């Protein structure tokens, strides 16, 4: 009998390790096959909630925020690109030259969850930013990405030009902040178990199998 796993994936669309974490999680679930029945929900987290609309140069931003040197940043980007290739995702760091505010992207993701297209939109947002270098705060970009994810573009634009789902996103952000989430990706399974970081597929699989076994015993 398949173990039921409710997975809350707390992340930001401008976080490269969140891409790695999601791809690893998906492959781990695929390896589990019929042993697990996963219900995946994406929860909002903003790495830079005060970021202005025009964004900031990515090298400048990382240097200011983390104190990294350009050499350290380049090495880290090479490592992320390599992890992406292993998982079948293309990071084009040459196109990702700026970091942006992601609040409106999270509003669309909340709506996509209601529409049953959240995973598709999350994947499309990752592709748009990390592979194509597009601006995830630009409404035209977000409408286009929503359409690619199978959502109604007109409805997406109506949401973006309003304040719809703003309170819901802020409430979710506050909820996970109160639960101690300070870094992403944070993967919460069955509202009890926490797996943090862009872990390898094997780590996710081992953790999920252990959780599934414990859940079966509890039942």
Structure description:
With 219 residues, the protein is an alpha+beta fold. It has one domain (3-218): Glutaredoxin (3-Layer(aba) Sandwich). The chain is built from 9 helices and 6 strands, in the order βαββααβαααααββα. It has helices at residues 16-32, 58-66, 70-87, 103-115, 118-131, 139-148, 153-160, 166-178, 201-218; strands at 3-11, 36-44, 56-57, 98-99, 186-189, 193-196. Strands 2-1-5-6 form a 4-stranded mixed beta sheet. The chain has a two-stranded antiparallel ribbon with strand order 3-4. Strand 5 and strand 6 (193-196) form a beta hairpin. Helix 1 (16-32) crosses helix 9 (201-218), helix 4 (103-115) packs antiparallel against helix 5 (118-131) and helix 5 (118-131) packs across helix 6. The longest helix has 18 residues, at 70-87. 37% of the residues are buried. The mean pLDDT is 96.
Structural class: alpha+beta
Q: In CATH terms, what is the fold-level topology? A: Glutaredoxin
Assembly of the depicted chains: single chain
Question: Radius of gyration from the CA trace?
Answer: 17 Å
Number of helices: 9
Report the sheet-strand fraction. Answer: 5-15%
The largest sheet is: 4 strands, mixed
Q: Please tell me what the overall shape is.
A: globular
Helix share bin: 40-55%
- At the fourth level of CATH, the homologous superfamily is Glutaredoxin
- How do the strands of the widest beta sheet line up side by side? 2-1-5-6
**What is the level-2 CATH architecture name?**
3-Layer(aba) Sandwich
Instruction: Report the average pLDDT across residues.
Output: 96
The structural domain count equals 1
CATH uppermost class: Alpha Beta
**Tally of DSSP β-strands:** 6
Kindly, what is the distance between the CA atoms of the first and last residues, rounded to a whole number of angstroms? 11 Å
User: Which H/E pattern describes the elements?
Assistant: EHEEHHEHHHHHEEH
Residue ranges: pLDDT <50 for 5 or more in a row?
none
